[in-house]
């Protein structure tokens, strides 16, 4: 059984996240959610690397990086 | 991933802005524009006045100047006269630029000073607790306008164009990637360039006017925006309460500092005016 490769790493800095929910709202793939007023990754395998979450985060709290193959 | 940290005083983070404040979105767009411009960061200087928006220079690793309320343009003029080779970017709020600093604003535009102005328009005085500003729409509330403002508001872009700016653009925090492009265009203009950016202030503006969350404000910008190319084909009545986005106005005129230095050279070379 091939395991779906996770191509992107989503880094959330909990110290900087203020819980505005922009990343969750703009993510087209339902990758992110809120837990205790901070962003968390719930469906990492669905991430397409579109970086909309990173674009709208006003707090430099979320970064999306392509993993080296 | 964009390397924002390359341009940040990371030890100053987290910034002071409230949850969902648009200032951070504008700051990021500005850093992307600066990166794309390829300008040597040592030739850039950022100047701000006072307000939440004017706190931006505190977080960026460039030469920066945080001045007094409404006076960013006056300080910027001095910098540019002393160091004409510097690229000067002014970061200001709607209160800072259009209320207390309104005179500096119109005269900087009239003189066509070579400055790039990024105006964060949250339609309220954020820092002092939500008083209405000259861009608060008629009828909307502020702490000192509990029944709704009875004053009409400025159209900042029309004001700047009428006063003499050579490049005038508008967008919103919803249109985050358009911001990079407009800021970059404005930076490449010789003369007074303005980018007005509608920015959510959830704490006062949205709260006092019961407009929901910051996200609701962003979605409102999406719904209510019309690209300028389309707006030009519409009747003015259809543009009521709409946000016209894009490059609103562009022209060419002699630039003040160039004229000033020409005059200065003329005098020093001949000992008198040519
Ligand atoms: C001379 C002077 N008058 C008044 C103030 C108080 N004050 C500080 S910020 C501000 C308004 C800021 O509004 P704006 O420029 O829209 O910025 P925002 O905080 O909304 O980003 C005022 C009136 C001051 N600091 N200095
Ligand atoms: S990069 Fe795109 S798909 Fe991945 S988490 Fe961010 S918004 Fe969602
Ligand atoms: S956009 Fe940024 S600050 Fe807002 S919830 Fe997501 S990670 Fe946190
Ligand atoms: S008061 Fe308004 S403008 Fe100031 S930081 Fe808070 S949300 Fe932003």
UniProtKB/TrEMBL annotation, chain A:
InterPro entries: 4Fe4S_Fe-S-bd, 4Fe4S_Fe_S_CS, Fe-S_Ferredoxin. SUPFAM superfamilies: 4Fe-4S ferredoxins. Residues 8-37, 38-67 form the 4Fe-4S ferredoxin-type domain. Pfam families: Fer4_7. GO terms for molecular function: 4 iron, 4 sulfur cluster binding; metal ion binding. Keywords: 4Fe-4S, Iron, Iron-sulfur, Metal-binding. The keyword 4Fe-4S applies. The keyword 4Fe-4S applies. This is 4Fe-4S ferredoxin-type domain-containing protein. The lineage of its organism: Bacteria, Bacteria division WOR-3.
Automatic annotation (TrEMBL), chain B:
Keywords: Oxidoreductase. The keyword Transmembrane helix does not apply. Pfam families: TPP_enzyme_C (PF02775). Residues 50-197 form the Thiamine pyrophosphate enzyme TPP-binding domain. GO terms for biological process: cellular respiration. GO terms for molecular function: oxidoreductase activity, acting on the aldehyde or oxo group of donors, iron-sulfur protein as acceptor; thiamine pyrophosphate binding. This is 2-oxoacid:ferredoxin oxidoreductase subunit beta.
């Amino acid at each position: 059984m091939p395991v779906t490769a996770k191509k992107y790493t989503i880094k959330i800095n909990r110290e900087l996240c203020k819980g505005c929910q922009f990343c969750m709202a703009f993510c087209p793939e339902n990758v992110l959610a809120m837990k205790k007023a901070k962003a968390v990754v719930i469906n990492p395998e669905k991430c397409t690397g579109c970086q909309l979450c990173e674009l709208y985060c006003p707090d430099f709290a979320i970064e999306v990086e392509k993993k080296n193959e | 991933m964009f390397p924002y940290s390359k341009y940040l005083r990371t030890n100053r983070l987290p910034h002071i802005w409230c949850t969902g404040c648009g200032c951070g979105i504008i700051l990021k767009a500005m850093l992307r524009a600066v990166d794309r411009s390829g300008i040597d960061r040592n030739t850039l200087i950022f100047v701000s006045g006072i307000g939440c928006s004017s706190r931006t220079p505190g977080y960026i690793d460039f030469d920066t100047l945080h001045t007094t309320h409404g006076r960013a343009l006056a300080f910027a003029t001095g910098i540019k006269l002393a160091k004409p080779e510097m690229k000067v970017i002014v970061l200001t709020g709607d209160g800072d630029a259009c209320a207390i600093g309104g005179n500096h604003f119109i005269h900087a535009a009239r003189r066509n000073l070579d400055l790039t102005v990024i105006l964060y328009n949250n339609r309220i005085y954020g820092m002092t607790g939500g008083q209405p500003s000259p861009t608060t729409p008629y009828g909307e509330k502020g702490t000192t306008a509990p029944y709704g403002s009875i004053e009409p508001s400025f159209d900042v872009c029309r004001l700047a164009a009428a006063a003499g700016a050579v490049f005038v653009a508008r967008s919103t925090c919803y249109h985050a990637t358009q911001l990079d492009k407009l800021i970059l265009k404005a930076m490449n203009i010789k003369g007074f360039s303005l980018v007005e950016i509608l920015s959510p202030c959830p704490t006062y503006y949205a709260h006092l006017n019961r407009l929901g969350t910051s996200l609701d404000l962003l979605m409102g910008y999406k719904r209510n925006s019309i690209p300028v190319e389309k707006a030009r084909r519409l009747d003015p009545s259809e543009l009521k309460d709409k946000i016209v986005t894009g490059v609103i106005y562009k022209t060419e005129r002699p630039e003040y500092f160039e004229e000033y230095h020409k005059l200065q050279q003329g005098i020093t070379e001949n000992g008198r005016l040519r």
